[in-house]
Amino acid sequence: MNVLGIETSCDETAAAVVRDGRKILSNVVASSLKEHQRYGGVIPEVASRRQLEYIQPVVDEALEKAGLSLKEIDAVAVTKGPGLIGSLLVGISFARALSAALDKPLVEIDHIKAHVYANFLADEQPRLPAVGLVVSGGHTDLYSVRDIQTFRRIGKTRDDAAGEAFDKVARVLGLGYPGGPVIDRLAKSVPGTEITFKYAALEGTLDFSFSGVKTAVLYHRQKYGNNNHYPVAEVARAFQESVVAILVIKALRACRKLDVRTLLVGGGVAANSALRQHLSAQAKEAGVKVYFPAMALCMDNAAMIAGLGFHSLN
Ligand code: KG4
Ligand code: ZN
Hints:
By secondary structure, this protein is an alpha/beta fold. It is built from eleven helices and ten strands.
């Protein structure tokens, strides 16, 4: 069964065709990111206008790359939320109209569950039940994943999302938007650092808080920033180490608490090299099998929507 997926929750306009929930026939992503960069964050009004412009050509390209005509699409899946309302509406309206015109079923998919599902777009199928760790620009959540449709949230951020903290810290350090990839790269450029930023342990819960570490970087910059040799890369590394440490601690604690041996990571921050490295090593020691999606499937994309869409059809 060929499912056409559509994802327009933020600044990406994405369409993909996935066969039987697993085989990616095409995966196209256009983005208005460059237009938002000078503002240091996504401007919703600009994002939704671009969604309107991009949606048709992106869907056309996804069909063309898959080598399929519209008639060969068996169902349409679209992101219903969470996300920017104006952007979401473009995808949802387009998908509804297409499904009606083709007389094919439409399924509306939760963006967060789809980030976790990205781990199933691979040859090896993870075993459930699992713990899901979603780390993106808008969310940092832990889930108990009983089966691919049944999620229960067991932890959340109380303030900033992990990706949002990366973006805000990058701004403080004058590194531009989005912050994750550049902090990741800079952190790798130094072998280590004496600088440390404490993480918020929030003992006794599986919740997170990242506003403290973000503010600590801001104060550090204010205090020492006039120095011509301000160690930006070391600060980036120390910040990243703090965020990664608490993500690893809480994700593995959740596995222990629920007594599960599978950990599924998803969202933009799942692309972070330090998180991938540390979580893989420590999960192994804890006897937990950790999965990360392929890099392109960590960021917002429509293959994860089409994939989960297949399982939501019955
Ligand atoms: O999942 P995503 O593409 O969009 C949302 O649903 O939010 O995640 C975007 C977030 C941004 O905050 C970006 O800075 C972060 O993911 N990100 C990273 C990396 N690549 C992207 N954070 C840390 N390290 C990275 N390599
Ligand atoms: Zn996302």
